[in-house]
Amino acid sequence: MNWQGSMVYRNSWVGSDKLGLDRNYRIALLDDTTSFGRSETWIAQNTVNMRVNKDWSSHLQLGFTQLQNQITELSTAQREFGLTNRMYLANWRNQHTLIENSAEKRHWHIYWGGQGRHETVARREDSYANERTMASGFLETDAQYHDLSGQVGFRVEHYDEFGDHTLLKAALAYQLLPDLTVRVSGGSGFRIPAYTEQLFRFFGNPGLKPERSTSGEVSLDWLPVDTLRITVSGYYNRYDNLITQAYSLDGPIRFPGIPGPTTVNIEDASVAGVEVNTQYTGSNGRDAGFSYTFSDNKDLQTNLELPLRPSHLARLWGQQRLSQWPIIVWAEAVIRSSTWNDATNTLPIEQSIQLNAMVRYAISKQFGLYVRGENLTNTRTSQFYSNNMPGTMVFGGFQLSL
């Protein structure tokens, strides 16, 4: 048996904006030099792993998270806004080994367990409070017989606010050649709105419904040479009441009925596409990779594009470890195609290219210095209406491992 525990605390302060009318008479985030935001986060977790016998292992995780956000606007009569969100988590997972023979590439495992989650929320500006509980149980199995492997399972979730839901998943993989594997997977999903999506003043919508989804994916994993891996995937996702941020006629929680930024449900939506990933690992200290995603994102009732989802997204990166010096040079370029702020496709977001880079100098195995630059192309294209994109940033620091 072994035990692991950790705790993370973070406290940050940042300048904030306020909601108001812009020059186009739309609700937008406006600069306000007197506004600021604070965020405090506590995360604690304890994990116990126990070997009950040679064929049965058990895993128990207990966790606690507290997120407190506060926005202060000195220029308005209502000066303070924010949420305090707490979550208590218990996660139990067991594994039984029925067959284990790695030499013959055969195994059969069974997994079972459950999860409990309790959340509370309090809103600062009007003392609103709420709580909700989720309990679930699951049963899964995976097996391998030579070059064929598969997984199947189901999960039953109970919400005190949203009732009972049964979720299914299945996957199959077959190694056609030593360097070529085909995979097929599918399943169903259910997601309740987060408290911040319902209640936060900038994007909150208390009328959000839970999101339901079904998905399927087919992929090929190919290693043409030892140093190169190529993965090609095709996927299809169907959503009922897709939860997404958008610029909407309904507007944010503070301005109901006035167009503005908020979170909405898309009643009937689909996301289908192709994803390509390549990764090269060189013997000369040079690594590189490329990824590209094409997605057809549709509101199936209007046949318009979904908001905030570019049809094309590409990333190219490279890294060089110098042989003469303990220096690593890394850079990446991220390319996004144009998309829309709103579900009615009237407020465009332009395409953008961003370049990021970093140089790290390792003084020892435990200590290193680095300089990092972000958005070196100084791209100012906003990724959401009225949200400004920060320009070029260069900063440095050190990394210490104990």
UniProtKB/TrEMBL annotation:
PROSITE patterns: TONB_DEPENDENT_REC_3. It is found in: Cell outer membrane. GO terms for molecular function: siderophore uptake transmembrane transporter activity. GO terms for cellular component: cell outer membrane. It is a multi-pass membrane protein. The keyword Transport applies. Residues 23-376 form the TonB-dependent receptor-like beta-barrel domain. Signal peptide: none annotated. The keyword Transport applies. Keywords: Cell outer membrane, Membrane, Receptor, Signal, TonB box, Transmembrane, Transmembrane beta strand, Transport. InterPro entries: Beta-barrel_TonB, Beta-barrel_TonB_sf, TonB-dep_rcpt-like. Pfam families: TonB_dep_Rec_b-barrel. One of its GO terms (biological process) is siderophore transmembrane transport. PANTHER family: HEMOGLOBIN AND HEMOGLOBIN-HAPTOGLOBIN-BINDING PROTEIN 1-RELATED (PTHR30069:SF29), TONB-DEPENDENT OUTER MEMBRANE RECEPTOR (PTHR30069). Belongs to the TonB-dependent receptor family. Hemoglobin/haptoglobin binding protein subfamily. This is TonB-dependent receptor-like beta-barrel domain-containing protein. The lineage of its organism: Bacteria, Pseudomonadati, Pseudomonadota, Gammaproteobacteria, Methylococcales.
